[in-house]
# Entry
Amino acid sequence: MLVKSLSILFFIISVSSEKFRFDNYTLYKVIPKNVEEIQVLQNLQNSVPEFDFWDDVTPVSEYVNVLSKPELKGDLESFLSGAGIDFVVTLENIQDVIDKETKKHYTRSDIRSMTWESYYTLEEIYAWLDDLVAANPGVASIIIGGKSHEGRDIKGIKISHGTGKRVVFIESGIHAREWIAPATTNYIINQLLSSTDEEIKTIAHDYDWYIFPVTNPDGYVWSHVGFRLWRKNRSPYGSEFGVDLNRNWNDNWLKESVSIDPTSNVFAGLGPFSEIETRTLSTYIMDMADRIDLYLSFHSSGQILLLPYGNTTEPLANYHDAMQIGRRAMGALSVRYGTQYTTGNIAEAIYFATGTSVDWVKERLHVPLVYCYELRDRGTYGHLLPPEQILPTSEEVMDSIVEMIIQAKRFGYMNYNSASTITVSMTLIFAMMTKLIL
Ligand SMILES: [Zn+2]
# Structure
């Protein structure tokens, strides 16, 4: 989600090699009741960069998460109370939550040691992908989608039970601190390779899956070793670091919800695709664009399924089909744990935002179905979703992907070239020929 600048804080942590601690930093859920209160919050967001707004304040905001450092908590609370704006403290001391996030570590002697009870480092995720490929020869292979500023690979996995199938593409972890996104993506990879569920086995076999759990590897590493709440990549701009990689794609670049200020958390870079991560990954995607039927991007938080576009509320392209498919998928998502998602296009559901990957994929590459998940939760933990919620989040998302593909087929998408369709057609042709001969 969107955040404004935190220039002073970022400057301190950018020049320090110490891991930043968030002792007694408090997370608030602020709930505006009307347009006037939204206006007051927008002014606060723009005028006091020390308050870290985890969500942009928009006319449709039901709540915003705001993080305050200890010495400013009194000021924030008295300001909100004075303005009559409702708020609750959701996390009194976020360092307590951070301390519990990475308890388990991946050991290479057993690929099942990747559990869904902890968040893993980039090194651990990449090692796990290598081990999965070794354990699934002929089905899984390592793919490299691009490079990062600090020279890391954007490493992913291809799951394929045959050649020439249509593609489901998953791009995850482009915002570093949204750790639930790579965690959920890893679960999806694991399910596609090892589930005994017939529906999951079918979708695993019917498509070629190209999956990148961490498309911002430098930022992800920094969110583990330096600053837990880092969002951008790590390329230097003067004394500042980082471009918001999901504002850097070449589609309506710099039009909405972005900044040209390198201290901002939504700094869009010096031009479209100025960053090596977006430049290399977009080239990789473009080279296979005509094979992609479904493109999914994973973020947190807010429990929203977003459709392009972020620059207009107009229902463009196959919007109505995509909405129906998305809503039904979110219906399936809600069955297991009752988790409710809102479905809508980016501009109408949360905010105007441009230069995003999903808009570029939809508008420039004409991929038929493109969705962005804003995963759990709705304002309690935000980007610090506790590890106990990794498994339920992942399970319900997997349910939704199965349903999304079933519904897409009903609406006439994702049908061609699937192994089962070809088998059925060949059987039918053979039956007809037999009948004719007889
Ligand atoms: Zn995000």
